[in-house]
Amino acid sequence: MPLDKSLQSGSTAMLLLKLLSEQDMYGYQMTETLARRSDRTFLLKAGTLYPLLHQLETQGLVVSYEQAAEGARVRKYYHITKDGQRALTDKQQEWNRFTHAVNHVLEGGECYAKA
């Protein structure tokens, strides 16, 4: 059963920041890595990926640079900034609180989340 796209929308930026925290990547590399690691749950199209990367760049969370690849083709790579690293940490903590609370509700338990 495919996942509801609204469940994915809030986490995609966090997942891209996570990939970039491990190494600089170009767009296609990000989409392929994300698809592979998520068992093909996250299949981003260029029309979704590049506006999101542009937004992250505008926010100062990533920077881009061009580098020649095999066959002298120039690729645009993305690199996470220090602000991006901090944002990733914040987003991961927020995600953990959110999933913890959801799991408690689904499992019938009580959750006393810190505000």
Secondary-structure map with pairings?
Layout: H1 5-9, H2 12-22, E1 25-26, H3 27-37, H4 46-58, E2 62-68, E3 74-80, H5 82-106
Antiparallel strand pairs: 1-3, 2-3
Helix pairs in contact: 2-5
- Count of individual helical segments: 5
Mean pLDDT value: 89
Report Rg: 16 Å
- CATH level 3 topology: Arc Repressor Mutant, subunit A
Give the CATH H-level superfamily: Winged helix-like DNA-binding domain superfamily/Winged helix DNA-binding domain
* Secondary structure tally: strands: 3
Strand content: 5-15%
What structural class do helix, strand and pairing data support? alpha+beta
Helix content: 55-70%
Shape: globular
Q: What gap, in angstroms, lies between the N and C termini?
A: 34 Å
Oligomer: single chain
Counting structural domains, the number is 1
Low-confidence stretches: none
Q: How is the main sheet built?
A: 3 strands, antiparallel
CATH class: Mainly Alpha
- Give the neighbour order of strands across the main sheet: 1-3-2
SSE ordering: HHEHHEEH
